[in-house]
Amino acid sequence: MQYSKSTDYALHALIHLAQAEGRENIGIKPLAHSLGVSESYLSKIMSKLRQDGLVRSVTGVKGGYELARPPRDITFLDVIQVIEGRQELYVCSNLDSKQHRTYFAGPDEAPPQRHDQCLVKRVMDGAQQQMDRYLRGHTIQTVLDEAAAVRSEECSSRRTQA
Amino acid sequence: MQYSKSTDYALHALIHLAQAEGRENIGIKPLAHSLGVSESYLSKIMSKLRQDGLVRSVTGVKGGYELARPPRDITFLDVIQVIEGRQELYVCSNLDSKQHRTYFAGPDEAPPQRHDQCLVKRVMDGAQQQMDRYLRGHTIQTVLDEAAAVRSEECSSRRTQA
DNA sequence: GTTATTATGGATACTAACAATCCACAATTC
DNA sequence: GAATTGTGGATTGTTAGTATCCATAATAAC
Question: Coiled coil where (chains A, B) (predicted)?
Fold first, then answer.
C-alpha cells in the first residue's frame, strides 16, 4: 500500500504555487518542468485540484494556476483526499462470513446484532483516524514554515563556520 | 490507497486460529470456508504468514495451522507488514527536482545540504508513524478481548429484557 | 509400506488501478 | 485574428492484486 505519484506531484505543485502567492499565475509549463514531470500528466492532476476548489485556473495568455485558499487552509488530508479519493483504508470483505457470527455468538437464537461492525475494521478505522488527524494538522503553510526554518539554520551555521 | 484483501483474510484467519488456541490445528479447508475465500488463494497467504513466523504448519493427515506466538504478541502492524511488505507509505519521486533546491536555497554557492530530506516526506513519515504506533498497540488478543466484551454485554442486555 | 490427507510452490491468467501521452477544443491576451 | 494556455476525451502501457490449477512433499492411519 502506497500513496500514488499523483499525490506526490499534487503536494509539490501546491507548495510551488504557495511560494509564488499573490505575485503571478504559474503556467503548467514551468510547473511541470520544476517538478520533473510531463505537462500533459500534471495538467490532469491540476484539473482535479481545480474541480475540488484547491486552485484556480486562468486560460489564455498570461494564464496559469494559483491557490484558491491561503496555504494555511490547505491541509495534507485535503490534497490526499482529492487525489486518492475519500475511500477508507480498510474494507472488510467478510461481513457475511461465519467469522463475524462467532465474534458475537451467544446462543444461536440470539437476536439481530446491534454491534454488526467487524472488530478488525474497528481497529483499522482507529488507525486511519490517527493518521487523518495528523494529516489534518499539517498544511502547505507548515512546509513553508519549515523550509524557512531550515534556511535560517543553514545561514547561521554557515556564519559560524566563517 | 487501500489495504489489500489479502491483509483482510490474514487478519481474520489469525483470529480464527487464536480462537482455537491449544486445542487443535486448523486445516486450510475449514479456514477458507469460514472466511468465504478459496482454499488455493488463502493457502498462499498462510504460507507467507508461516515464512514470517506468525503461524506454524503441519502437513499430512491431521495437519493444519496454529499460531506460532501467543495472540498478545501478534500485532496488527506485524500482520500488515508481512502481507503488504515493509514499504513506506510515501515515496518522494522528485528528489532531484528544482523544487527541493528552492526549499533549502541559500545563495547558489551553498555547500551540500545536510537536510537533504524532502519536507513533504517528513510530514508524510510523521503520519505513518502515528498510524504504525496505533497498529503496534493493537493485537490479535485485543480483538479477542473486545469480542468477549461485546458478548457479555449482549447477554446482560438480553437478561434485562427478559 | 500403502493410502489418504494436507500443506507447498510454481506457473498461469484475469482484472483494475495507475501512469503517461496525444489531440481537438475553448478561453484569453495582445 | 494570432498566439498562448488550460480542459477534457480517448488511448495505451505497465504493474500489483486477485485468483486458480497442478505437481510435489510430508505425515498419520491402517
Answer: none
